[in-house]
Structure formats: structure tokens, C-alpha cells
Amino acid sequence: MLYSNIPRVTTASAFAGIPPPRPQMLPASLWHPPPVRSGPPSPTGEKLGFCCQSLFDHAVGTDPPAERTGQRQNRGMRTRLGCLSHKSDSYNDFTAILPDKPNRALKRLSTEEATRWADSFDVLLSHKYGLAAFRAFLKTEFSEENLEFWLACEDFKKTRSAAKLASKAQRIFEEFIDVQAPREVNIDFQTRELTRRNMQEPSLSCFDQAQGKVHSLMEKDSYPRFLRSKIYTDLLSQTQRRLS
């Protein structure tokens, strides 16, 4: 054959005579961990740790540390607010409740008058000191906007100037009724939309349905709790001690 005289070259014979490569020694810094530094952690290390933790949280379906911390803080805040509500539920001198010289007002308030507040919600609202005590109680529950709206409607019904009627109605709507209002009251969608339509031609009765809803809510929800609160029971005790 034409190529029969050409010698065969194998892989082993091709590298014959070439010395094998010498092993490379790794630096000592790669064999031993670096010393622990007492200074602040490296920003790069912090980022790497955060990324690894985020990947782990995503893989196992757990909340990130920041979210868990925020949830604990929110739970703690709600607990503190709850404790604050219970702590501020008791008054001794009633200076924050009774308007205009509370000591004199307390002397004028009889046990019979304070007891009648439990007869009905409207009796409570019609009494000057009963209204003040109920307002103080609602503040401990962070729901005084309901009473403020009801009072604003009562004042609105006394408006006699047609020129002021529209502007006063708009202020009440923007403060209590509109979505995301500063002191938005808890009413249903239908009542809110009906009140919104009433704003097109404001009248003395444009808030009647919304006011009725809020009145019913306070009567069924807040009023029974007020009668059981320390604000009311302590006030009764003060009037009874004055007689003894």
C-alpha cells in the first residue's frame, strides 16, 4: 500500500520524552481561613449574606427576615396600643372628660343623672357631661370620628344661610365620607354613593342616611362598651362618694 511504510504514532509515543507538569502549590491564604476581624462587617459580605438568605427564604417559602421583624413590630405595636387603651380607660379627677372646670362640673353631676345615661343612647348624647364622657371613651378606642361626624351633622342641620350650606356640606363630606378621608367613618358603599349624589344639590337632609348609619353603629357597638368601661363606672363611683 501507499502508506504502509509510514510509522504509526501513538498518544503515548507523541508525549514521550516530555516531562510531566510540576504540581502548583496553592498560596497559604487559600489553605487557611483569614483571621477574624474585630471591625465592622464588609459591605460586600453583608450583601452576599443577604442574597443567600433571600434565596433560601424563597426556596423554602419563608418570610424574609425584614418582613418577619416588621410583623413582630406590628404585633408589638398593636399590643402596646391595646394596653394604652386599657390604661387610659380609667380616670380619677376627670379633667380630660368633663368640660369647663371639671371639679365644679363633678359636683353638679348627680348620681341619678349619670345613672340615666344607661337608659338609652339618646339620653347619653343629650346630656352635656354624658356626651363628654362618651367622647373620652371613644378616644381610648381610636374611634372618635364617629361621634365627631354625628355632631357635625347636628350642627349642619342648624345652618340657615343658603350661601354657607354647600361649603359646609362639602367640608363634612371631604372630612368624613369620601374615600380616604382624614376621619373616614365606617359606612357601606350604597350609603356613601347616595351621600355623594346628594352633594350635587346639598340640602339640610343630605347626610341623614349616613348619620343614621353611624348613630346605629355607635348605639349597638360603642355604647354598650362605654357602660361597662371604667370611665363610666369610675364616674358613677365619684358621684356616689360625694354623697356619702
Automatic annotation (TrEMBL):
GO cellular component, one term: perikaryon
Keyword Membrane: yes
RGS domain boundaries: 120-236
Gene Ontology terms: biological process: negative regulation of signal transduction
A Pfam short name: RGS
Membrane topology: Peripheral membrane protein
UniProt keyword Transferase, yes or no: no
CDD domains assigned: RGS_RGS8 (cd08711)
Keyword terms of this UniProt record: Cell membrane, Cell projection, Membrane, Nucleus, Signal transduction inhibitor
UniProt main location, coarse: membrane
Record's subcellular location: Cell membrane; Cell projection, Dendrite; Nucleus; Perikaryon
PANTHER family reported for this sequence: REGULATOR OF G PROTEIN SIGNALING, REGULATOR OF G-PROTEIN SIGNALING 8
The protein's name in its UniProt record: Regulator of G-protein signaling 8
